[in-house]
Amino acid sequence: MAKKLTAGVLQGKSYTETMKDLEFNGEMFExxxxxxxxxxxxxxQTPSNEGVYVKMKPGLKGKMTRNVDLNMKxxxxxxxxxxxxxxxxxxxxESITYEVVKSEFxxxxxxxxxxxxxxxxxxxxxxxVKGFSEGEDTPSDEG
Length: 143
What we know:
This is Phage protein. The chain is α+β, with helices and mostly antiparallel strands. Helix content is 43%, strand content 22%. The two termini are 12 Å apart.
């Protein structure tokens, strides 16, 4: 899957923005986030593929067919790990470490922050993921 070219990708780690209206315990918060560099982006993307097994087999007329096996439990854990890493790497506050994110941040907040960090880093395309999960054959070929 190709990365999305965004301001965050072009500016690298120097690109920051403030997420506003983050709700936690009935209060509203702001958090400064940044784009991930290539090494961090790779570390964030890797666990999100856990539990997904793609097998290619020859099909009719020489075309390859893909069979995808999905272990939901493994994939869920991988997605959570990916989100923890995205938040830990993608926040400018150095006190927000992986351990802090994993043990103290509520899941809803982790997911919201991680999605935005991934988006500005060019490693998330929600439309492709949605298309794939809805059973489209090749959602990335539509563009």
